[in-house]
Amino acid sequence: MSIAELNRREKLVQEDSNPSPDGSAFVTGVSIKLTEKRPCARVSAEAILSGDWRWTRQAIPANESLYFQVAGVLRDGVLDTVFDNDGDPFEKAAARSELNASVTGNINRAQKLSEGQ
Known about the structure:
Blueprint: H1 3-17, E1 26-28, E2 45-49, E3 63-69, E4 73-75, E5 78-80, H2 89-95, E6 100-103, E7 110-112
Parallel strand pairs: 2-7
Antiparallel strand pairs: 1-2, 3-6, 4-5
């Protein structure tokens, strides 16, 4: 295998292991109920800042071609990343990377996670 191919594969692995290569993450402001008849929704969101997670973008520009996946649930400023309850439809879908989101309007507000989790 060529060095170029090894480097290409290593770059792909690094990109796959980084949930936010551009340093952006956000949290929705409300709970959303999605169904087969209503698989999408528009809601407000805030950027999430965390040194531990390397989420540093205080503003996230609209970009409908960039998809985000669920990293966790925010509870009292702490990110819960355990999706171990397959009886909960949200956790089951999140654990299987079946939930995606895109930013359709600029996100200009941010909140900071509690660090050291």
